[in-house]
TrEMBL record:
Protein name in the entry: 2-hydroxymuconic semialdehyde dehydrogenase
PROSITE patterns: ALDEHYDE_DEHYDR_GLU
Keywords: Metal-binding, NAD, NADP, Oxidation, Oxidoreductase, Potassium
GO molecular function per UniProt: metal ion binding; oxidoreductase activity, acting on the aldehyde or oxo group of donors, NAD or NADP as acceptor
Organism: Flavimaribacter sediminis
EC number(s) per entry: 1.2.1.85
Keyword Oxidoreductase: yes
Length: 490
């Protein structure tokens, strides 16, 4: 395993590491349970200085760059992430425990791609233009201008740390804002590494600041309450979103929220079942189920129900837990002992409620260095009613409940019977049905005969309790810029 003595992670304010004694917390490797780094917890004063540094940078050289120059700067950041690919990869794996096969294909490449995708975007977005007649018979022209929103607070979760953070920092910087990032306390390493990339790419001091800490009574709360923050973009749990929204109410600051989900998949009997199974096993177990787009509910048309459950169980049995740095490992631990305890609570509850445990249902005993990691078995249940909390609440673990259905309308109604609305997937070879059903699903994203195919130009976000606003493509401009109308009397 990749061990060594714990490193120290410091906050980055105005381009420099914050010096001085700070309380610190431990950054734990979920695969081993060992400490990889000691993280300095930002004080209220540190957060204040970070926000002030970001404000000052808006008025400095960064604020004077042309759109072209900013685009070039973003490409340099992407180049820097790619040049230090192996360092980012190692840091992300040590923080999350995710297998190298996943992080090397998803997390780190997307960390760079997010800067490239947004670099050119504001350049190609046309504004509005409305000629009008005035009441006295004259003419006037309206046109729109966009300007940066200002200082953006970026609050991130732990499941895809670099990917989700750059998904916000990329468009924020492309639009000319400056940022103060608060990474998850579980996964602080790559945000700090990115500060070095920013410096080497010539990004002016104060454009990108990092404050580490927890949520309540710590860096998260200090940052979201700070009156110098002009907008808050947050990805995480719905109830955290509620707390952040309350903080944002003071000073009526706008929020962009990507929140929790309880995503469902519908599998019709006419689907290509092998393809449906191959993608469903990803949709359920990738990243040990800790993907916001993950499927925790599957509705399978009755004629293929038994075959599908059996096929998914066979694929679950083939998951290979192991050293995340081993290329053959396909299944990692969950993020923390606390999260494992929470998921195990649901596993116990499912059994108590009479679920049939088709596979898994408990912890995985690992050996050697991995013995103290947060391992938990890929789990499949059947037999619960839709009103069970297993079927209603987000678990965010490697588990799924599968239920049979008999009609299209029933499948749609049961899929939509949730307070969440992030993602859904459906499997059918009937094209008309695919379009008809997709149009009725209450989810921000629907995949037909696929899962997690992402085009970064498309709208990304959730309905209902799964979020506010959309990220991706031009949609991010709504949050990261202020739209102004100029009316000229001719
Ligand atoms: P979380 O809400 O516990 O924490 C997210 C971040 O918010 C962390 O940095 C945390 O320190 C901070 N935070 C916590 N309380 C705060 C407060 N009061 N004020 C300010 N900041 C605070 O979420 P998590 O456990 O890190 O991530 C898992 C959750 O994220 C799941 O619910 C998952 O569905 C969701 N998620 C959603 C998406 C999406 O795109 N919709 C993507 C990934 C994860």
């Amino acid at each position: 395993m990749h061990g060594g003595s714990p490193s120290r992670i410091r906050n980055v304010v105005g381009g420099a590491h914050v010096e001085g004694d700070r309380r610190f917390f431990e950054d734990i490797n979920p695969a081993t349970g060992k400490t990889v780094a000691l993280v300095e917890e930002a004080t209220r004063d540190d957060v204040d200085r970070a926000v002030n540094a970001a404000r000052a940078a808006l008025k400095g050289p960064w604020g004077k760059l042309t759109q072209d120059e900013r685009a070039k700067a973003l490409h340099r950041i992407a180049d820097g992430v790619e040049a230090r690919f192996d360092e980012f990869l190692k840091a992300e794996i040590l923080d999350t425990g995710k297998p190298v096969s996943l992080a090397s294909h998803l997390d780190i490449p997307r960390g760079a791609a997010n800067f490239r995708a947004f670099a050119e975007l504001p350049k190609h977005h046309a504004g509005e233009f409305f000629p009008m007649r005035t009441p006295d018979g004259g003419d006037a022209l309206n046109y729109s201008l966009r300007s940066p929103r200002g200082v953006i607070a970026v609050i991130c979760p732990w499941n895809l740390p670099l990917l989700l953070m750059t998904w916000k920092v990329g468009p924020a910087l492309a639009c000319g804002n400056t940022v103060v990032v608060k990474p998850s306390e579980e996964t602080p390493a790559t945000a700090t590494l990115l500060a070095e990339v920013m410096r080497d790419a010539g990004i002016p001091d104060g454009v990108y600041n990092v404050v580490n800490g927890l949520g309540p009574d710590s860096a998260g709360q200090f940052l979201t309450e700070h009156p110098g923050v002009d907008g808050i973009t947050f990805t995480g749990e719905t109830r955290t979103g509620e707390a952040i929204m309350a903080a944002a109410a003071k000073g009526v600051r706008p929020v962009s929220f990507e929140l929790g989900g309880k995503n469902a998949g519908i599998v019709f009997a006419d689907c290509d079942i092998e393809k449906a199974l191959d993608q469903s096993v990803r949709a359920v177990f990738a990243n040990a189920g800790q993907v916001c787009l993950q499927t925790e509910r599957l509705y399978v048309e009755r004629p293929i129900f038994d075959q599908f459950v059996e096929g998914l169980a066979a694929r679950a049995a083939k998951q290979k837990p192991g050293d995340p740095f081993d290329k053959g490992t396909t299944f990692g631990p969950v993020i923390s002992d606390e999260h494992r305890t929470k998921i195990l609570g649901y596993y116990d509850k499912a059994a108590a409620q009479g679920a049939k445990v088709v596979s898994g249902g408990g912890v995985i005993e690992m050996e050697g260095d991995l013995a103290d990691g947060h391992w938990i078995a890929p789990t499949i249940w059947t037999g619960l009613d839709d009103d069970s909390d297993i079927v209603r609440e987000e678990i965010f673990g490697p588990c799924v409940h599968i239920a049979p259905f008999d009609s299209e309308d029933e499948a749609i109604a049961r899929t939509n019977a949730t307070e969440y609305g992030l993602a859904s997937m459906l499997w059918t070879q009937d094209l008309s049905r695919a379009h008809r059903v997709a149009a009725q699903l209450e989810a921000g994203i629907t995949w037909v005969n696929s899962w997690f195919l992402r085009d970064l130009r498309t709208a990304f976000g959730g309905m209902k309790h799964s979020g506010i606003g959309r990220e991706g493509g031009i949609h991010g401009l709504e949050f990261y810029t202020e739209l102004r109308n100029v009316c000229v009397r001719i």
